[in-house]
From TrEMBL:
This is BamA/TamA family outer membrane protein. Residues 397-731 form the Bacterial surface antigen (D15) domain. It comes from the Bacteria. Signal peptide: none annotated. InterPro entries: Bac_surfAg_D15, D15-like. It is found in: Membrane. Gene3D superfamilies: membrane protein fhac: a member of the omp85/tpsb transporter family. Keywords: Cell outer membrane, Membrane, Signal, Transmembrane. The keyword Transmembrane applies. It holds the Pfam family Omp85. Its main location: membrane.
């Protein structure tokens, strides 16, 4: 039955594709252009031959119509939708997929030959020849191009005639690092790149008015009988004097509360380290603001330091606009002089904002949340930001099944105070060039009621630092991280769950978590035109070590601090992501994740909030939330008790996803996920959960299709997946799926629907 259905589908597909033939639509006096090819002939090997071929092929115009599975689907959609009465479907196909026909009458092979010849000469092939041949096949025409090249001209020597001015000596020094070395093939684009390199380097050495057009390369090919040339680097005669002298910064003026209506002469001026801070009422303390400015008097002009100074001032978080302008003042014979003016326009000092959010957490709870945020910027006139956040949230398990009744109500209050500098017990004046390390102090409390099972009160305090080392690298370290968890009002049902799993009970009883954590992110994923995107993230979390040492030295009660049990563990994870963008809209996204937690000392398991889990919309999507593992463990029932049992100390996971557009903001995805969690120690209540050397044979695998509403700043995601490999089945039965889509029982068990906000990775 299924074989017959497959054959019928195959025949139907062939008929549909055959129906996409466009030959009958091509006008009598036209021929469809099907593309061009190129053959390069040479006397010997050509350096960078593939690159040159790509460059020449890039000159082919116009581009032929695209093909899909060997058929001109876009062109067919255009023809069908252009009929006198096309109908709704054909109009839609034309609008969404249609392509205007590209006829051979638009192709000019002679012009393309001339462009190819010019491009070959720009690459040093001065005696090349090009030709073309038109290939006609009924209603279809293509063009074959040929390029015949001989030995190219290569550089014999590079000469700089002048050395009387300082700028000449600077150029001579910079040319020592040039790629234009003897033996280099003549390449016009490399000469232009070299001028741009010299321009950037000279500007960073103080040449404020320098321009790459002041430089000219001249090639002499009559130096030897061989195909060699000498290259001369000269200044144009029209280069002005002010363009070839270095500039120094003679004055630095900062306006911490700039307004176009203010009169500078009526404002107070404070001088700190040679910089003038001009403001009326005190808005920002000059001695603190000075630390963000990398410019110094008598230093040469540097666009790099100027840009970094603007970045640092913007990163404070107090200013809406940062504008650094230079003005030329009196020049000397050897140096020009500049005045640097830094105009800073503050943000509104106080704000109150209400945020209605759709929350999708890493623990796969989702639901609405209301945040009220009060923010006071520049609290102590040093760029400090105080944020007070009150939160109400309701979350539930949207995956359905036996866990659909599990929900959570959260109430929280948190205060964050961020200093845009390092606050330490000894003064530290940092000069991080890219951005400013910030100090963050946090206090918070949260009340959580989960499904009538228990109530949890959490108190937290953190002290740490975070900063961007550059555009891609982020660091955060919290040397003080305290959490006090008070489990209250457990229901008889939850007590029964805890009684059946002593490890779980201990993970909730460890009520005091004191430690240090560190986060590192290298993020190079963003960018529509970045072909290869990479993300590397890691988190290290250590708890209880200092308390354990204090216990042993002071002789306190073992495993307790201030009357509370405290947790001892080390935990770390690594998140690796790679995106391959085939074009602006089609992406293959991959992820590998590994995490390990090691309980020790007075802890036999990780605290529940620190454990790993698998399954759900941000994990292996073919399995319901927290329904995987640990290992091959399968609970007797899949109710709420299993939600707490199916977590572990170790997690491995891999994902691959092909993302493509459907229409407008609606995107699609095909994906496959694999992963599981395991326990570090044996737990009799969870047989098969311990990590072993056969862990790879216990991986769950699933695949599916997703749809996403992507409005740039907001993504709503729907994923439908089915299991391909089930780790808790007998070893020889884990692979496979009957795919009995017509059975209601099969669909209930094997089609897993996931809803989430944001992409999974």
């Amino acid at each position: 039955m299924r074989i017959n259905q497959f054959l019928v589908g195959l025949v139907l597909g062939v008929v549909i594709l055959h129906g996409c033939s466009v030959k009958k639509f091509i006008p009598e006096d036209e021929s469809l252009f099907t593309g061009s090819d190129l053959e390069i002939e040479s006397e010997g090997d050509i350096q960078d031959k593939k690159e040159i071929q790509r460059e020449l092929e890039g000159l082919f115009r116009p581009e032929p119509n695209s093909k899909f599975l060997g058929m001109y689907f876009g062109l067919w959609a255009h023809y069908k939708g252009s009929k006198e009465k096309p109908g709704f479907i054909n109009r839609f196909l034309k609008k969404r997929f249609g392509e205007e026909p590209v006829y051979f009458s638009r192709v000019n092979p002679q012009t393309t030959e001339e462009l190819m010849l010019n491009r070959l000469e720009n690459n040093g092939f001065f005696f090349a020849e090009t030709s073309s041949e038109v290939n006609r096949n009924g209603k279809f025409t293509s063009v074959s191009y040929q390029a015949t090249v001989t030995e190219p001209y290569v550089l014999r020597a590079l000469k700089i005639d002048r050395d009387s001015l300082e700028v000449d000596r600077e150029i001579i020094e910079l040319m020592e690092e040039s790629e234009l070395q003897p033996g280099t093939r003549f390449n016009l684009s490399k000469l232009n790149d070299e001028r741009e390199r010299l321009d950037e380097a000279l500007k960073n050495r103080g040449y404020y008015n320098f321009n790459p057009n002041y430089l000219i390369f001249e090639a002499d090919t009559n130096v030897t009988d061989k195909r060699e040339f000498d290259l001369f680097l000269r200044f144009r005669k029209s280069a002005p004097q002010h363009g070839i002298i270095p500039y120094k910064v003679q004055k630095i003026k900062v306006f911490p509360n700039y307004s176009v209506t203010e009169d500078e002469d009526k404002l107070d001026t404070v001088v700190v380290d040679g910089k003038e801070f001009i403001q009326g009422n005190l808005v920002f303390k000059p001695n603190l603001l000075e630390q963000y400015i990398l410019l110094e008097k008598e230093d040469r002009y540097s666009p790099l330091r100027s840009r970094l100074t603007s970045n640092r001032l913007s990163s404070i978080g107090t200013y809406r606009f940062v504008n650094l302008r230079y003005e030329e003042v009196e020049d000397s014979v050897e140096f020009g002089n500049l005045e640097a003016n830094i105009y800073l326009s503050p943000l509104t000092k106080r704000s109150l904002r209400a945020e209605l959010q759709g929350v999708s957490k890493s623990n796969n709870f989702a639901g609405p949340a209301l945040n009220l945020v009060y923010r006071n910027r520049n609290l102590f006139k040093g760029g400090e930001t105080l944020s007070l956040t009150g939160k109400f949230g309701f979350e539930t398990q949207l995956a359905g099944g036996d866990l659909s009744g599990l929900n959570s109500i959260e109430l929280g209050l948190k205060a964050d105070l961020v200093y845009p500098r390092v606050i330490f017990f000894v003064p530290i004046k940092e000069k991080f060039s890219y951005s400013v390390p910030k100090t963050k102090m946090s206090l918070g409390t949260e009340y959580q009621s989960r499904g009538g099972l228990y109530r949890l009160n959490t108190f937290s305090a953190n002290y740490g630092y975070f900063w961007n080392a550059n555009r891609f690298v982020f660091h955060e370290i919290n040397p003080i991280s305290l959490n006090v968890v008070n489990l209250t009002r457990t229901s008889p049902e939850f007590e029964e769950i805890l009684d059946s799993n002593p490890f779980l009970r201990r993970s909730f009883e460890q009520q005091f978590i004191a430690g240090i954590n560190y986060t590192f992110n290298f993020d190079k994923l963003s960018g529509r035109f970045r072909t290869h995107g990479i993300f590397v993230g890691t988190t290290l979390d250590f708890a209880g070590n200092a308390l354990g040492l204090a216990n042993s030295l002071a002789g306190w009660e073992e495993g307790r601090f201030l009357g509370l049990n405290y947790a001892q563990y080390s935990r770390g994870d690594v998140d690796l992501r790679y995106y391959y963008r085939m074009n602006e809209e089609h992406t293959i996204a991959t992820r590998l994740f590994g995490g390990v937690g090691l309980p020790y000392g007075n802890s036999e398991s990780l605290p529940f909030v620190k454990q790993f889990f698998a399954g759900g919309p941000n994990s292996v999507r073919a399995f319901r939330i927290r329904s995987l593992g640990p290992g091959t463990y399968r609970p007797e029932n899949t109710g709420i008790g299993a939600f707490f049992d199916q977590a572990g100390d170790i997690r491995f996971e891999g994902n691959i996803e092909y993302r493509f557009p459907i229409v407008s903001v609606l995107k699609g995805a095909l994906f496959m996920d694999a992963g599981n969690v395991w326990l570090m120690n044996e737990n009799e209540a969870l047989p098969g959960g311990k990590f072993t050397s056969d862990w790879w044979s216990e991986l769950a695998v699933g695949a599916g299709f997703g749809m996403r509403i992507d409005i740039e700043f907001f993504v709503i995601r729907f994923d439908l997946a089915t299991p391909l490999r089930v780790p808790y089945l007998p070893e020889n039965e884990r692979w496979g799926n009957t795919f009995d889509i017509g059975s209601g029982d099969w669909r209930r068990e094997n089609l897993i629907f996931n809803f989430a906000i944001g992409y999974p990775f």
